[in-house]
Specification:
heterodimer; A: 287 residues; alpha/beta; 60s Ribosomal Protein L30, Chain: A; 2 domains; 4-stranded mixed β-sheet; 10 strands; 38% helix; globular; B: alpha/beta; fumarase; 5-stranded mixed beta barrel; 6 helices; 7 strands; binds iron/sulfur cluster
C-alpha cells in the first residue's frame, strides 16, 4: 500500500488552484487565438483581443483571470492501493481549497441558498467544494479541478428526451440552451453535453466533459462527428464573443456518454448541457 | 462602429451621440455596486434619504472584485451579469444615472428607461478582470463595507474599455449584432 502524506495533498490542491485561476491553460489559449484569427465581426474580434491581452496580464501579475473564481469543482480518482496518512482525503481537499482561495487572493463565492449569507465565516473560505470521488485500480490519486463561475452555470440545463427524439432532439435541445443564453455566459463557450446514464448522471457527465482538453476529439468516431455537427450549428447562431454578434460563439462541443456501452434506460434519453465560459480554468494532477 | 473617449460624470449630449456597437473609453470617477447595494440605494430614494454619492451623470459598474493583494489598488475586476440589477436600475436612471456597465441582457423596463431618460448600458468584457483592473487607478469603499466585494466603491478609471449595448434610441447590440451574423 502506497502512502501519501496529508500535507502533500493539501499543498498540491492549493498550488493547482492558484496557478489555474491566474494562468489560462494552453488548450484554451490556442482556441482563443484561433477564434481571434477566424472571427469576421469587428466588435467580436476586439473582444477576443482583450481576452488574449487579459490572459497575458493575469499570468504576468499572478492576478485572477476573472473576478468570479467560482465554486471549486473536483473529480477525484483514488487508487485502491494508496492511503492518506495524517487525515482524510476529503479534509485535505477542503483545506487545500481554503488555502488556495485565501492565499491566492481569490474570491469567496459560496453562500447559504436561502439567506444568501457568505459561508466564509461559518464553513470556510470558498468552502465547501463540490467533489466527485471514484475508486479505481492502482496506487495513484488523480485530481481534476475547475473554478466554475456563476454566469455560465446559470444558463446550463438538463432534460430527459423521448428515445424517438434521438440525435435531432439532442441537437435542438443544445441549440435552444445556447440560443436562450445569448451573451450571458461570456461566449466564446465550451459546451459540455452529457448523454445517457440517469437524469442526474447526465448532468455530472456534462460537467466532466468540460475538463477534456480543447482540440481533442471524442474517441468514438460517431460522437466526434456529432460534436463537430453541433458546433457548426451553434456557430450559425451569430452570438459572437460576449454576445456582441459574430461567427465565434462556440470553441468546442464535448460529449460524454455513460460507459460502457453509451448506456441509458430503454425508456429514456437523458441529456444535460453544462456551459463553460471562455475563462475555462481547469487543471489536472496525479499524485 | 465609432470610437469615443468620454469623461465622467456624463452629460446628456455625451450619451445621445452614442449608438449601439460604438466603443467607448471612459475616464474619471465611477461607482461600483451589485444587487445588495442597489437594493439599499433604491430604499434610500424611496425614503427621501441622501445617497452616498451624487447620481447625476453617474456611471455605475456592476462588479464584485477579488480581494486586492497588498499594494494593489483593486483585485481582478470584470463585470458581473446585469439582469440582477434590472428591477432597481430604472429608479436610479430616473434620478439622474447616465451609465451602467455590466454584461448580459437587460429587460424591457431598463431599455425603455434608457430611451426615456437618456441613459446608456455599456458592456465590458466579462472575464477580462485582470485587464480591466489595470485601467482602475484608485479605489475606495464609500458605503456598506459590510457587504465585502459588494460594497459601494468610488473608483477612478482611465480609458476603461466598454461597448455600447443599449443606446438612447432603443437599439440593442445583442439583438442587432446577432441578427447580422446569424446564418440559416
Ligand atoms: S461567465 Fe466566466 S468569464 Fe464570465 S464572469 Fe463568469 S466566470 Fe468570469
Amino acid at each position: 500500500m502506497r502512502v501519501v502524506r496529508y500535507e502533500t495533498v493539501v499543498n498540491s490542491i492549493k498550488d493547482m488552484i492558484v496557478y489555474s485561476t491566474t494562468h489560462l491553460s494552453e488548450d484554451m489559449l490556442e482556441a482563443l487565438k484561433k477564434a481571434y484569427e477566424e472571427e469576421e465581426s469587428e466588435v467580436s474580434k476586439a473582444v477576443l483581443s482583450q481576452l488574449l491581452e487579459n490572459a497575458d496580464i493575469a499570468a504576468k501579475e499572478t492576478k485572477p483571470l476573472c473576478q468570479d473564481t467560482g465554486l471549486a469543482i473536483f473529480f477525484v480518482k483514488i487508487g485502491e492501493d494508496v492511503k492518506i496518512e495524517g487525515g482524510s482525503l476529503k479534509d485535505a481537499i477542503y483545506e487545500g481549497t481554503e488555502k488556495g482561495y485565501k492565499e491566492g487572493f481569490l474570491r469567496a463565492s459560496t453562500c447559504d441558498c436561502f439567506t444568501r449569507e457568505n459561508l466564509k465565516e461559518k464553513i470556510g473560505y470558498n468552502l465547501p467544494p463540490v467533489i466527485y470521488f471514484d475508486l479505481v485500480p492502482g496506487d495513484k490519486i488523480e485530481i481534476e479541478y475547475a473554478a466554475k463561475g456563476g454566469g455560465s452555470e446559470n444558463v446550463s440545463r438538463a432534460t430527459v428526451l423521448a428515445p424517438a427524439q434521438g440525435k435531432d432532439g439532442i441537437k435542438e435541445f443544445v441549440k435552444k440552451v445556447i440560443s436562450d443564453a445569448g451573451p450571458n455566459p461570456c461566449p466564446p463557450l465550451v459546451v459540455g453535453v452529457g448523454i445517457g446514464g440517469s437524469f442526474d448522471y447526465a448532468a455530472v457527465m456534462s460537467k466532466h466533459a468540460l475538463f477534456r482538453s480543447i482540440g481533442t476529439k471524442n474517441p468514438d468516431p460517431e460522437l466526434a462527428a456529432f460534436e463537430e455537427e453541433i458546433k457548426d450549428e451553434l456557430n450559425k447562431l451569430g452570438i459572437g464573443a460576449m454576445g456582441m454578434g459574430g461567427t465565434q460563439t462556440v470553441l468546442a462541443v464535448h460529449i460524454e456518454t455513460f460507459q460502457p456501452g453509451r448506456m441509458c434506460h430503454i425508456a429514456s434519453l437523458p441529456v444535460s448541457v453544462n456551459v463553460q465560459c471562455h475563462s475555462s480554468r481547469h487543471s489536472h494532477i496525479t499524485i | 462602429m465609432a470610437e469615443y473617449r468620454l469623461k465622467t460624470p456624463l452629460k446628456e449630449e455625451d450619451v445621445t451621440k452614442l449608438k449601439a456597437g460604438d466603443i467607448v473609453y471612459l475616464s474619471g470617477i465611477i461607482y461600483t455596486a451589485r444587487d445588495a447595494a442597489h437594493k439599499k440605494l433604491v430604499e434610500l430614494i424611496q425614503n427621501n434619504k441622501p445617497l452616498p454619492f451624487d447620481l447625476k451623470g453617474s456611471v455605475i459598474y456592476y462588479v464584485g472584485p477579488t480581494p486586492p493583494k497588498p499594494g494593489e489598488v483593486i483585485g481582478s475586476a470584470g463585470p458581473t451579469t446585469s439582469y440582477r440589477m434590472d428591477s432597481y436600475a430604472p429608479t436610479l436612471i430616473e434620478h439622474g444615472q447616465k451609465g451602467m456597465i455590466g454584461k448580459g441582457k437587460r429587460n424591457e423596463a431598463v431599455k425603455d428607461s434608457c430611451k426615456k431618460h437618456k441613459a446608456v448600458y455599456f458592456g465590458a468584457v466579462g472575464g477580462a478582470g485582470a485587464l480591466l483592473a489595470q485601467r482602475i487607478k484608485d479605489a475606495k469603499v464609500i458605503a456598506y463595507p459590510e457587504l465585502g466585494p459588494e460594497a459601494i466603491r468610488e473608483i477612478v478609471v482611465e480609458d476603461f474599455p466598454v461597448v455600447v449595448v443599449n443606446d438612447t434610441y432603443g437599439n440593442d447590440l445583442y439583438q442587432e449584432g446577432r441578427k447580422k451574423w446569424e446564418k440559416n
